[in-house]
Design brief:
With 98 residues, the protein is mainly α. It contains 5 helices and no strands.
């Protein structure tokens, strides 16, 4: 498991892919609530599952290997191989390329 994302300074707010309207709205919110930019962020369990899958999708691991890793790291979420493989397939359909 990697280090948690930590915000050290509330110096800037960066919105990727939101367009001008989204960026302006985010800046207005940040101006009203500077505490939001300084919050410490940590992935929840679902985020850690997705991170494991996405990091393993580097062209060297098969879906079978990734599913086995899910079962090892999250046995309470993926007690059955087919559950883990299904989750890998779901993430692969959203973010993978052939």
């Amino acid at each position: 498991m990697g280090p948690a994302l930590r915000a050290s300074k509330p110096a800037a707010v960066i919105i990727v892919g939101a367009g001008p309207a989204g960026s302006a709205a985010a800046l207005r919110i940040a101006a009203r609530r500077p505490d939001l930019a300084a919050r410490t962020l940590v992935l929840d369990q679902e985020g850690r599952v997705e991170r494991l899958i996405l990091q393993a999708m580097d062209g060297t691991a098969s879906n079978h290997q990734i599913a086995s890793s899910l079962m090892a790291d999250f046995p309470h979420l993926f007690p059955k191989f087919n559950d883990a493989l299904g989750r890998v397939g779901s993430v692969a359909r959203r973010f993978g390329t052939d």
